Fold this sequence. Notes:
Helix content is 57%, strand content 4%.
Amino acid sequence: MPSLQGTLELTHLEGVGLLPPAPPPPPTQGAPAARKRGGAPAAADTPASFANKRLKKMNTDMYYRQSKMDNNAVAASLASVGEGDDSCGGSGVDGWWGLDRIRSAMVDCSRREGGGKGGGLTNVRSLLTIIRELDGGGRKDEDENENGGGVTNCRRGRAVAHLLGFKYRSYAARHAVAAAAGGGNSIGVAADGAVASPSIPATVSAPASGGNVVFPRSLHLSVAYLCARGILDPHDLIPHLVVANTAIDAQATASATAGTKVATTLMVAHGAHCVAAVERLRRLGVVSLNAKNQGDGRASNDHAPPAAVSAIFAHPSFENDPAVVIFRALLALAGNWDVAAAFLAHAAHGPSFAAKVIDSRVGDAVVAEMRSEMDSAVSAACTLSEGVASDVCAWVENAIEETAQFNGNGTGGRRGSSFPSSMASLLAKDATLAEISSVLLEPLLALARSGRIRANPNLYIKLCRLFARKLTKINPESIDDDTFSVLSTFLVPSMSLFQSDTVLPGELWAVLNNLPYQLRYKLYSVWHRPGLEKVSLRIISSADVRAGKVLKPLNNIESEIETGIAARYVLKRISKENIIVMGRKLAKTSHNNPLVVFTDILSKIESYDNMILMMVDTFQFVTKLGLDVMGYCLLVSLGGGEDAGQKNRTKMGGLNTEQWLSSLETFTGAFYKKFPFVEMRGILMYITKRLKEGHASELGILRSLIKTVGGYGFVDYDSTASLSDLQLDGRRGSRLLKRETSSFGVVEDVNREASHQLRSVLQGGDLGVIILIFLSHIRSRVLYSKSSDTVKQHVKVIGNMYDNCEAVMCLLLEYLSDSSDDSTAKEKYAASMPSLSDLHKKYGVDTAVAWMLSRPLVKPTYLSSTASTPSSESLTLFPEVASKHITPTMFETFYTLAIYDISCPDDRYSLDIERLKKDCDRLIQLQQGGEAARGQMSMLAAAAAAAGGNYDQIRQATAFTKTHAMQLDRLKSNVEQLSNDFQRQQNRCNLVLTKLEANRKLLIESEVDDSMNDSFASAFMTYCLYQRFLLSPEDALYCAHFVKLLHKIKLPGFPTIELIDNIVNSVIGSLYCMTEDEAGNLSIFLNEIWKSVNSWRYDNDAFASELKDSPGSRLSKVFAEKTGFHHHALTGGITHDDYKSLYNQWHKKIGSAAIGCLESAEYMHTRAALIVLSRIVSVFPTQPKIGERILKTLAPLQSEDNERPDIRATAQGYCSQLIKARDEGMWKEENVAVTRARQEREKMKAEEKKKRLAERHEEMKKETEMISRQLHEDGRDGWRQDRRDGREERGRPWGMDLRHTRKNLGSPTVALGSDDRGWIAKYGIAIGVIGRQRVGIIRGRVVSPEGKEESEVGLQNRAKTPNVRIKNELVVTLVGHHHVDLALTSSRVVAGEGAEELAVLTE
Length: 1403
């Protein structure tokens, strides 16, 4: 018995589950003649009758005269066969023993019957029973196996296998003899005299010595047919194919490692093919400067392959390799993929594959290794043989024929197959997606790895449509592993193999569109791995390449490299002028490899942010699949890929965002604004994940999405310190008033579809609320969590991160709760947001933020409720300590209301409505035309002319266009809406005021004797005001106006004076421990409070009408004793003199705290003090002593020695504001004599300075005249006729001929004079631009900025047009010692004819 290392039993494959049970043999129409008794002989010469004749003739010799051999001899003979002994020569079976003569005859008969066209194998069925009987198996064994009562005879088919194997060896030996005799015959004749079929070429092996070995086609068909009928185990042929391969190819044994003997050199050739392909791909796109010119004159960048590689491609094809052709025949006739693939793997890998089957430790790992070897063998065969790939494609088409409902007859063969097919469709019509994927996984994997699927796009389209239809019938989120493997290894990566068009991406998108974005991004990740273009080539070792183990199919890598070269070619040439043409070309390159193109685009955007809008316009030509891949690439670039966290997100100091992240933030907003249907959840989930981990560096992305995509840029702000008074007034009003005051009349183009899409994504799955809760948590984590043990973050960095989280949280809350565009926004927000008590207790959100998040939901209930008692939800957040001093009603009222409810900006509404009406009237005049519109048309014409417009553009600018009509409609709508908002807010404020008046007794609980509560002021400041006014500018305004409102309604027991004292004490302490935005919020709150404090101090009427005899002027007993006031302050309130004393104390405290911060070495102390002082400069300081001390403290901060440029700039700005306020009389307590003396000193300094400038001007004028005379005497008239070129045009200034270099011009004559504001030059040379033409200033007369005279400067136009004159006042600054930089303060350029005015820019 041959060793199992040389042959593989079919039963072992069945044992490990790789092969299904062999089908039972078809029933025969009659028994063999040897077992019939009394039956009549067959009339016709059928195969059975022919076999009967042979049996009668050979009966005596076979059974009576043959000398029987013992079992040991048989075993030794078969063992020699397994070892590859070729001592039989060319005698075949008859050279061993005569036992198998009858079997050989039956096989030859079956070959003759099956060798013709048209599927003649069906006529051989009558011989199958005879072969089974003579091969050691009987009907009894088959019946037992069918009934489960016995085990298949392991000897069944062994003799037939050896007979067929000896046939292969016989033809191989015959070729070896002919080759040795020098007569290698290229046309082989079978033993039965049949010539190979002309339609299907006879198989030819690949001998190293040359010549062809012909194996008849009928021989391969017989093997496949007998295997299909369960008579033959194809693995028993492997030893004979090894012997045949060794006999015809001496190099096969030499090339085998460790004595391994294989039936085909498929894997060796495939490894050599991979080596050659990798070398070629590494040179692809590399330009060699030393390359020789080709015949067409171009230099080649591809080197010739080495000789060893060339020899591989000179090797004959594997189209005729016997093992490969048997694999193809098995696919066609047997139809069982595992049987055919296992045979090819055994033939290609040799005994190593057989050893895994008989291993007693067979498990999942061994099965996986066997599957891998089977896949690699089939992939190698498809790569090296186009016929194998065609048969695999035909097998797949036949398998899905019924399932996909394609038109086909199902019989007589398959499209692209070289063999007739007897297999039916493997998949039923109602097969599930899991069943389809399980059957097709390995064939499709081989097609994808070999790249042969590119030759059959129709099959790809059929598969895409089949999977798209099946995915609609299941839950796409629960697809099985086989389906995902088909998608990730075949459908998606195979897109790179086809030509770049829009058809196949559309078919693939029809499949992927049914999947959730998580699965799609996972598929793109597999497509991306292990890298794009040549990255995967760099990380693979040479040994793996020689073994054919590549990380990514080489055809995919080649396609990616070619796409990258084409994309970079277009990117180098794209511009705003050719964006349509080049954009289409760039989009076309991305159709089959979007990952390559978009990754390259994003890498360039990270460095050049001026490409953002241009690239966004280009994406309009990209397919839907490409746009979805763009979303994935953007996520990977932001850090959501496998290399997350590799790039720094902040600069070295940690204060500013890195350029790449800042550019991607801008691009994200612009991209999703134009393409809102592209998946956003991936990026939002990535931001959520980062927030959960405690990282806030990606908040700029969320901010950009809300501002640009959501259209809420008017709500956002850079910092609270940058908000003007006008913007703060707008934030007290409606949403439209915020927009009008924030953008200063600039209309922002809002994509409502994009805004709706973003809001729906944030509302889906409670994603927006989850982000809000994470933002509320990360604020404290930023302050108290330690990022690293070695790196210490600057307090400014921590403060900026904290402020950024606070600003984004307010922005997102405003966006989610706004129902102006979506009427159901608040309902969806309420459905997602936990209750107020859960936010505080379950999710750990602090009191002020919990109220802020729940305010849009709580406030409507509060305003509509008539109950005077607070809700149970609000009581859960009410501190037990505060309950002793503050009533629950006061606590709930304070945290429920907003600035919109208690303060209406009447003046701001009126001003904006009036402004919009004026704009409407202006457009109406322009629409009507006539005399009234003449002035406006002149202004528009002048503006168009100044911008360089031509005659048609100027006429177009003065016409009433469609844009003007749209603007007029918008203005009319805004006027009407603002008027309605004004009325609505007034009604709301009146409603709140009425409710406060009704609950005034419940807001504060006074003492029994109506005296003030000693602890109310401090408790109200601690648990209410201080926690809220630091959150946002709106909350700061609300806190100040809420205090004013309670004082205005004269709420009994409300201690206004004590509350102001607590505010001052809180300010002087918090200046040392707050961020920049918190300082800005504090400054807004303090500015509003201090306006009233100042008016009560310096306006007796205001004190008498607003504070005197009011409940707020009364003091508690503890506070009165502390300040030393008399008993009257407890009952009647303080007097104006008492108030002045308190004011002086408050003023001194704030001034001392501010000066201490300015003198501090800590950055944040100084920064916070400057922010607060800059905001309250109009109300503080009012006492000259404090003011002078502040000015003295600011002096070192403004010097050039200060290493903090932002502090220096802020200090200089505040100093200018403070001096201006002082000069305008803000220092109300300053002595009149001191003020007058200071004004006199400043006046004398101004006159002295003016005198010095006049003297300097006279000196420069004399020098100018002297130099002019010298130039005239030298004959260098700057405007004389240029004689060197003989032109008749106007004279060109000397020294400016285009043929002259800068060196020929020489150094200009420069006269310098200095003062406080810069340098003055009398002559200079500079470069300017008029329109699109560059000019050079070659002579001129420049005066000082203080002079009243305009200078006329001569210009030379390099475009050879008439002379151009420029009349300007020039501010001149020194650059080095020989060059003067001219900066224009006014630019009016008149051409030679005086026809048009152009803007000038000088360098």
